[in-house]
């Protein structure tokens, strides 16, 4: 019985929570809380189509309800035969032409927005100042290369607000899809070709969302598809420039500070550096970057895109990543680590910060 | 062979069904097999909803979850919805046009057994190392990358099942073109027959691209080809095109017969002819045509560019027009009628708001620029379940109640039917309505779990509770079916009392030759016209004469079984040395059976006039 009561309570809470959330979702991940030009444009289209469609539903429902009350056979023994109506040309024309008009109202802004969102001409202009980011998706992590700034980072995209940011998207294993719901719709990262599009992050609304948006993989890509999250740090242009400078200043791997961290760095250089880089330079081609770049690992907000950013979780992740991201390509690539080694490694990695 | 039904034991009945070429028995086979797969696919859906009820759940593992969603989609589309619709097409369409069987009874049986063995093969994957896990769309890069034999089961099983569907569709086309009773012109055909006709034509054009895609993928995975291997110059976007050139028409192949079913129900239970019959026919054909022009709207985020996206967006919106025409014609069929709320009518009535919701979200996802947000999220999951469950599944459940007496001679319990409806209908909206919002709030589809703190938790719980309601509905239906068959109260020709089309003019279930004398059709709703003219039944169009019937045959079973064997050989030929001999053995069985069929003259048999006269006395009046 208690179980049943729990169930009831749970469903009550569910309905309550739904009403309270105001049907708009969380501002760092919801497409209904647009935080930039692209998402705004898409949100406006959603609203327009919803209004038109709710209108259609209303008309149908009014006729529907009238039929239910007026034309129900009240008496089962009723033998009357209703008039057999063949149809009506007037009505047919009416319910053919009105939908066509409604669709035209919808089609024009749709086509215009579609072309607008595909406008990436500033990318190809010579001496363009537009910020271009090369996104490379891998089985379950994201690589972000800033060719103009000559630096690479992973898992946490850093972008300036209030300007259009242009993306080159490609996948290096299976198809994924790059999606930052609050900032705009998704585009697939194909294995065959480079896809291009742009996004914009509004400064005010980024601040409201804590300057950190959730990014997701939207195309089924294997067991850990659900866990292929990334984060987007949207900061003002000044802060962004400062970040770029700080990153560019790191030419050599950062020296560990404490004794423990020095031990950690040794272990890292022995076991991890084959795949993970700790310098941001982008000399290697994208295909040679086998694992996330960890230059500014200490600055990030999640481990592997999903786990809480603390040493405890980091040690658990390194000791066995498999339960956290099934099917990942890190498991089994290195020897088992002792608790002391994990401590040292965590100390070192958490110290990899480029900014205070 | 005698016309007099013989008492048979279980073995005899089994043999009868294994060898039958009678469209009514094949319909029952489709119904049983499709119903079985529907329950299997439903169980998979329940597992999905249990896993997603709470965040970070570990009811199933990530890998197993991908297998479950893949099999849920594949099973429901190919092995449940299509065969169940084929069951009703087989059972009813020949009766509606006044035919004694389909054009090629032997091929009809072959179509069923191919589907059956393909479906069994696909589902055996659960016991043989894991099911396919690349989604029902099986996009090439992931499918090629997928380890194990899961995806091999998919490409081989669907090739066999798809072959069955294709020849089934061709058979229906030929039947409708050639075997209509005297007076049954095209514009007098019931809407269900029309929709069968258009859906069959669509099968004819839609399944070959799928077969091409599957064959290429089979060569890639099993025989070392590189059609989809980018490093070797292959291209994975081609798979997306091939799949959706099939996949989108497939949606209409499912929904058009559903429209046909509802058109019959609205007319019967409103005691009114279908409003705007000719525009309904026109809309059906138009939807069938436009269905081939819109496939790339499934690929708006693939990066085809703004020109392609804009064209396909507008083309997709255009389908809203004929669909809207249909909705209003159904409403105005009821308008002014005397609407009796039987169980089939419950489903038909509930279908209108459900399908309108699915239709309008269809227009929403057609707006390409906004679809970049909807695509591959729970919004899309909600949309296509509103169309497929709110349209196709409601139609299948409605048809089950409507034509059960025609197929089995006894009526499903009306009260239990209405209980099923309410559980299923409420559960359906509870499960899927909230998913629109989940998608908009940022939840991608095909995720085996989600992290807490993103605002997804409560709504997923609501959705899972809805799934429980739907399951109860299905369980009540199964109970209803068992109880009805146990009681087996026989009914007459026209148990609903208001039947309008030819199938209600003959006994329930019909004699194996259907019509003793082919009926003369005087107009749309042939039986209704005769009733209104004060007659009890149809006027015969021919004198009583001998009827030519086909012989039963075990060969269709063997042809299909051979391919089933060969598929195992193809799958394991790289792992084991017995693979190649098994391929050869399987193909020998198939081609041997076909050879046997070709050299053995089978002229069928005749039912003699005198036997038919005997039947008349037993009440088998045509």
TrEMBL record, chain A:
Membrane-topology descriptor: Multi-pass membrane protein
Gene Ontology biological process terms from the UniProt entry: ATP synthesis coupled electron transport
Domain Cytochrome oxidase subunit II transmembrane region profile, residue spans: 23-121
Pfam family, one: COX2_TM
Keywords assigned: Cell membrane, Copper, Electron transport, Heme, Iron, Membrane, Metal-binding, Respiratory chain, Signal, Translocase, Transmembrane, Transmembrane helix, Transport
Domain Cytochrome c: 259-353
Domain called Cytochrome oxidase subunit II copper A binding: residue spans: 128-246
Molecular function per GO: copper ion binding; cytochrome-c oxidase activity; heme binding; oxidoreductase activity
GO CC terms, sorted: plasma membrane
Keyword Signal listed: yes
Entry's localization field: Cell membrane
Segments crossing the lipid bilayer: 49-71, 92-115
Reaction catalysis annotation: 4 Fe(II)-[cytochrome c] + O2 + 8 H(+)(in) = 4 Fe(III)-[cytochrome c] + 2 H2O + 4 H(+)(out)
Requisite cofactors: Cu cation; heme c
Cofactor descriptive note: Binds a copper A center.
Listed EC numbers: 7.1.1.9
Signal sequence residues: none
Similarity comment: family membership: Belongs to the cytochrome c oxidase subunit 2 family.
Function field: Subunits I and II form the functional core of the enzyme complex. Electrons originating in cytochrome c are transferred via heme a and Cu(A) to the binuclear center formed by heme a3 and Cu(B).
Name of the featured protein: Cytochrome c oxidase subunit 2
From TrEMBL, chain B:
GO BP annotations, alphabetical order: aerobic respiration; electron transport coupled proton transport; respiratory electron transport chain
Protein location: Cell membrane
Cofactor: heme; Cu(2+)
Catalysed reactions, semicolon-separated: 4 Fe(II)-[cytochrome c] + O2 + 8 H(+)(in) = 4 Fe(III)-[cytochrome c] + 2 H2O + 4 H(+)(out)
Subcellular location, principal: membrane
E.C. designation(s): 7.1.1.9
Keywords for the protein's UniProt record, in alphabetical order: Cell membrane, Copper, Electron transport, Heme, Iron, Membrane, Metal-binding, Respiratory chain, Translocase, Transmembrane, Transmembrane helix, Transport
Biological function: Cytochrome c oxidase is the component of the respiratory chain that catalyzes the reduction of oxygen to water. Subunits 1-3 form the functional core of the enzyme complex. Co I is the catalytic subunit of the enzyme. Electrons originating in cytochrome c are transferred via the copper A center of subunit 2 and heme a of subunit 1 to the bimetallic center formed by heme a3 and copper B. This cytochrome c oxidase shows proton pump activity across the membrane in addition to the electron transfer. Cytochrome c oxidase is the component of the respiratory chain that catalyzes the reduction of oxygen to water. Subunits 1-3 form the functional core of the enzyme complex. CO I is the catalytic subunit of the enzyme. Electrons originating in cytochrome c are transferred via the copper A center of subunit 2 and heme A of subunit 1 to the bimetallic center formed by heme A3 and copper B.
Protein name: Cytochrome c oxidase subunit 1
Lineage: Bacteria, Bacillati, Bacillota, Bacilli, Bacillales
Encoding gene (name): ctaD
């Amino acid at each position: 019985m208690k179980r049943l009561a729990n169930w009831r309570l749970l469903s009550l809470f569910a309905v309550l929570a739904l009403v309270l959330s105001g049907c708009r979702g969380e501002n760092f991940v919801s497409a209904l809380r647009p935080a930039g030009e692209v998402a705004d444009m898409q949100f406006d289209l959603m609203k327009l189509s919803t209004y038109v469609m709710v209108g259609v539903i209303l008309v149908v429902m009014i006729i529907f309800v009238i039929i239910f009350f007026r034309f129900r056979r009240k008496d089962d023994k009723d033998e009357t035969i209703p008039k057999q109506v063949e149809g009506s040309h007037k009505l047919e024309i009416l319910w053919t032409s009105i939908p066509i008009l409604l669709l035209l109202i919808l089609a024009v802004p749709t086509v215009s927005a579609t072309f607008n969102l595909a406008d990436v001409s500033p990318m190809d202009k010579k001496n363009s100042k537009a910020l271009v980011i090369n996104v490379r998706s891998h089985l379950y992590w994201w690589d972000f290369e800033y060719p103009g700034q000559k630096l690479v980072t992973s898992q946490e995209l850093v972008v300036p607000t209030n300007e259009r940011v242009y993306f080159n998207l490609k996948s290096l294993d299976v198809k994924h899809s790059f999606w930052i719901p609050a900032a705009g719709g998704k585009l697939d990262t194909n294995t065959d070709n480079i896809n291009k599009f742009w996004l914009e992050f509004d400064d005010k609304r980024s601040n409201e969302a804590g300057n950190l948006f959730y990014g997701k993989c939207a195309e089924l890509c294997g067991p850990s598809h659900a866990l292929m999250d990334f984060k987007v740090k949207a900061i003002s242009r000044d802060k962004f420039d400062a970040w770029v400078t700080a990153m560019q200043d790191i030419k050599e791997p950062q020296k560990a500070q404490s004794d423990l961290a020095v031990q950690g760095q040794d272990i890292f250089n022995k076991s991890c550096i084959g795949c993970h880089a700790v310098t941001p330079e982008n000399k290697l081609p994208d295909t040679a970057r086998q694992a996330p770049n960890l230059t500014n690992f200490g600055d990030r907000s999640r481990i592997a895109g999903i786990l809480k950013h603390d040493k405890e979780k980091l040690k658990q992740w390194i000791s066995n990543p498999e339960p956290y991201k099934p099917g990942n390509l890190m498991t089994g690539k290195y020897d088992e680590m002792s608790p002391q080694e994990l401590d040292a490694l965590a100390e070192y990695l958490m110290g990899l910060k480029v900014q205070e | 062979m005698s016309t007099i039904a013989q008492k048979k034991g279980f073995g005899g009945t089994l043999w009868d069904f294994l060898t039958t070429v009678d469209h009514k028995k094949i319909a029952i086979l489709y119904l049983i097999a499709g119903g079985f797969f529907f329950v299997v696919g439903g169980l998979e859906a329940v597992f999905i909803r249990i896993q997603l009820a709470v965040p970070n759940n570990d009811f199933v593992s990530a890998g197993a979850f991908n297998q479950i969603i893949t099999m849920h989609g594949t099973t429901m589309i190919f092995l449940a919805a299509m065969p169940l619709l084929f069951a009703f097409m087989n059972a009813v369409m020949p009766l509606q046009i006044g035919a004694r069987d389909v054009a090629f009874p032997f091929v009809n049986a072959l179509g069923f057994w191919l589907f059956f063995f393909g479906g069994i093969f696909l589902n055996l994957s659960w016991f043989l190392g894991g099911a396919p896990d690349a989604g029902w769309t099986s996009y090439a890069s992931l499918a090629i990358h997928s380890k194990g034999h899961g995806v091999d089961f998919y490409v081989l099983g669907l090739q066999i099942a798809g072959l069955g569907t294709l020849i089934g569709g061709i058979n229906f086309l030929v039947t409708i073109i050639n075997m209509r009773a005297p007076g049954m012109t095209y514009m007098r055909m019931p809407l269900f027959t029309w929709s069968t006709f258009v859906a069959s034509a669509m099968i004819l054009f839609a399944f070959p691209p799928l077969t091409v895609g599957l064959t290429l993928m089979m060569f890639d995975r099993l025989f070392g080809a590189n059609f989809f291997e980018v490093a070797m110059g292959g291209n994975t976007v081609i798979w997306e095109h091939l799949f959706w050139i099939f996949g989108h028409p497939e949606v209409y192949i499912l929904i058009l017969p559903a429209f046909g079913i509802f058109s019959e129900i609205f007319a019967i239970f409103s005691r009114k002819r279908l409003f705007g019959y000719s525009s309904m026919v026109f809309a059906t054909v138009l939807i069938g045509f436009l269905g081939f022009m819109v496939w790339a709207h499934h690929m708006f985020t693939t990066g085809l560019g703004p020109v392609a996206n804009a064209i396909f967006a507008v083309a997709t919106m255009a389908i809203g027009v004929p669909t809207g025409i249909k909705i209003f014609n159904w409403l105005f069929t009821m308008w002014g009628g005397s609407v009796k709320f039987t169980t089939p009518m419950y489903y038909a009535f509930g279908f209108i708001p459900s399908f309108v919701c699915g239709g309008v979200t269809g227009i929403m996802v057609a707006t390409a620029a906004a679809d970049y947000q909807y695509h591959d999220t729970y919004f899309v999951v909600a949309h296509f379940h509103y169309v497929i469950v709110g349209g196709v599944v409601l139609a299948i459940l409605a048809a089950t109640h409507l034509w059960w007496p025609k197929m089995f001679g006894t009526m499903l319990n009306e009260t239990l039917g209405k209980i099923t409806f309410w559980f299923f209908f409420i559960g359906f909206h509870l499960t899927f309505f909230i998913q629109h919002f989940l998608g908009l709030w940022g939840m991608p589809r095909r995720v085996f779990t989600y992290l807490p703190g993103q605002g997804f938790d409560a709504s997923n719980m609501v959705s899972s509770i809805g799934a429980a309601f739907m399951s109860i509905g299905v369980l009540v239906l199964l109970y209803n079916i068992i109880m009805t068959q146990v009681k087996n109260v026989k009914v007459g020709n026209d148990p609903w009392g208001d039947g309008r089309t030819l199938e209600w003019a003959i006994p329930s279930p019909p004699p194996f030759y259907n019509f003793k004398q082919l009926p003369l059709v005087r107009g749309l709703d042939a039986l209704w016209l005769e009733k209104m003219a004060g007659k009890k039944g149809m006027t015969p169009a021919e004198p009583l004469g001998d009827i030519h019937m086909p012989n039963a045959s075990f060969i269709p079973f063997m042809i299909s079984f051979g391919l089933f064997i060969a598929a195992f050989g193809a799958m394991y030929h790289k792992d084991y040395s017995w693979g190649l001999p098994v391929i050869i053995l399987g193909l020998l069985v198939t081609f041997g059976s076909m050879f046997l069929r070709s050299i053995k003259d089978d002229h069928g048999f005749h039912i003699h006039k005198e036997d038919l006269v005997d039947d008349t006395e037993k009440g088998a009046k045509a």
